[in-house]
């Protein structure tokens, strides 16, 4: 099959913009904890639970969104979920008006976030098999730039017109994802074909019986646990340490900038070196930088250095996990299999966001939470390093329908 580069370039550009908006918006939500708490009396645990609910709903919904995209393409999934995402953002303004409004907002944001991940399947199908890691790394790197722009924008809007205006602007940016998805016309029939036909049930059974798939899935728990704890609670932790409020927004912006650099580099490295070992090293280095951040005195300078280092390691996992899945299990049910792995990530995200709020409300500090990040990070490094990345034994073909 001859790859159509002219159709790949627009897909890369649109995917980068959509992922950039979605990731930038959701990674900047922690900026609203302080003003919402001051004006509405929202506790850290209640806000953290809303973010946690967003992540766990995202995780459980992702395999279903992925299965739909595997059959119908990503466009209808992205359009629908982008509008749900925008509605969830607007609900953030009504926690004292609509009963359970904060939890409902978290639920809608979780469903609304599922769309952009389906783009990775379309990109993997379109890309040259020898350059999948680089291509996915390029798209994920472009998507990382959203946080660099949106986090400072959100901080400026909160400090200026107020957090209500910031929410409205965020919702408009969320709805823009639906518009950007309209030109995407990818179908599962396009791109690389799967070497053998399997129904979804057989593919899931095969993957869940593969030790390497299970190890990578369990290790991905730590990724979500660490990163969502930071995006949700780092601004509050810095305020607790006496660091100026603007540093938190700047730190999130630096995470976005260095995330783009790191993701691109790890995408390039994934085409040359062991993808499972690169993943393991990301988990180990993240944990080491977290430990170092806790040892040195917390200041604006140490925070910005820490944010830059963590940003470099932030989404470098994306091209590596994509590359392993495509190489080991093929592309026929890529989005669904990625959705199951991603569910583990989001379970970790749920506990990272919620645990941080509970720990702070009960102890008045984040000491136990930081310790949990280190222990879980070391466990993820061990699991990922020991992963078996050999393809599963060929299973019998699924029977054709009458």
In the CATH scheme, the class would be Mainly Alpha
Question: What shape does the CA trace take?
Answer: globular
Radius of gyration: 20 Å
Going by helix content, strand content and strand pairing, the class is mainly alpha
Number of helices: 17
What is the CATH architecture term?
Up-down Bundle
Q: Tell me the CATH superfamily.
A: MFS general substrate transporter like domains
Q: Helix fraction? A: over 70%
Low-confidence stretches: 191-195, 394-402
The CATH topology assignment is Growth Hormone, Chain: A
Mean pLDDT, all residues: 83
- Biggest sheet overview: none
Distance between the termini: 29 Å
Beta strand count: 0
Overall number of domains: 1
Q: How much strand content do the residues show?
A: under 5%
Give, in order, the helices and strands.
Answer: HHHHHHHHHHHHHHHHH
List the helices and strands and how they pair.
Layout: H1 5-26, H2 33-40, H3 44-72, H4 75-91, H5 101-112, H6 114-117, H7 119-126, H8 132-159, H9 163-181, H10 200-208, H11 211-240, H12 245-270, H13 275-295, H14 300-312, H15 317-329, H16 334-363, H17 367-385
Structure report:
This protein is mainly α. It has a single domain, classed as Up-down Bundle (Growth Hormone, Chain: A), CATH 1.20.1250. Helix content is 77%, strand content 0%. It has 17 helices and no strands. It has helices spanning 5-26, 33-40, 44-72, 75-91, 101-112, 114-117, 119-126, 132-159, 163-181, 200-208, 211-240, 245-270, 275-295, 300-312, 317-329, 334-363, 367-385. α13 runs antiparallel to α14. It is globular, with a radius of gyration of 20 Å. Mean pLDDT is 83; it is low at 191-195 and 394-402.
């Amino acid at each position: 099959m001859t790859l159509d580069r002219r159709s790949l370039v627009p897909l890369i550009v649109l995917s980068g913009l959509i992922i950039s908006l979605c990731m930038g918006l959701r990674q900047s939500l922690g900026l609203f904890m302080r003003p919402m708490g001051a004006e509405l009396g929202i506790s850290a645990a209640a806000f953290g639970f809303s973010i946690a609910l967003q992540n766990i709903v995202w995780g459980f919904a992702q395999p279903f969104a992925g299965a739909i995209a595997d059959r119908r393409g990503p466009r209808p999934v992205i359009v629908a979920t982008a509008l749900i995402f925008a509605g969830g953002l607007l609900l953030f303004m009504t926690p004292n008006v609509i009963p359970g409004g904060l939890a409902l907002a978290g639920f809608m944001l979780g469903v609304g976030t599922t769309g952009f991940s389906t783009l990775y399947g379309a990109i993997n199908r379109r890309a040259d098999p020898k350059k999948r890691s680089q291509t996915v790394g390029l798209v994920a790197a472009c998507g990382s730039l959203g946080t660099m722009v949106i986090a400072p924008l959100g901080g400026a809007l909160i400090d200026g017109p107020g957090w209500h205006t910031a929410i409205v602007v965020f919702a408009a940016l969320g709805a823009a994802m639906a518009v950007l998805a309209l030109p995407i016309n990818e179908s599962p029939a396009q791109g690389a074909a799967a070497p053998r036909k399997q129904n979804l049930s057989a593919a899931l059974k095969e993957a869940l019986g593969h030790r390497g798939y299970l190890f990578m899935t369990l290790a991905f728990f730590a990724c979500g646990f660490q990163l969502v704890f930071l995006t949700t609670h780092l601004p509050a932790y810095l305020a607790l340490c006496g660091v100026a409020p603007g540093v938190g927004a700047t730190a999130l912006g630096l995470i976005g900038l260095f995330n783009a650099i790191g993701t691109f580099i790890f995408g390039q490295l994934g085409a040359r070196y062991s993808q499972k070992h690169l993943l393991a090293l990301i988990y180990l280095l993240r944990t080491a930088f977290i430990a170092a951040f806790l040892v040195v005195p917390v200041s604006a300078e140490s925070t910005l250095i820490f944010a830059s280092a963590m940003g470099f390691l932030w989404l470098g996992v994306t091209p590596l996990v994509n590359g392993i899945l495509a190489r080991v299990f093929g592309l026929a049910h890529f989005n669904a299999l990625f959705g199951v792995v991603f569910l583990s990530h989001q379970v970790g995200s749920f506990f990272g966001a919620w645990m941080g709020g509970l720990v702070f409300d009960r102890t008045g500090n984040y000491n136990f939470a930081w310790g949990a990040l280190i222990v879980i990070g070391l466990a993820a490094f061990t699991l990922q390093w020991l992963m078996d990345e050999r393809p599963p034994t060929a299973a019998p073909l699924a029977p054709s329908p009458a």
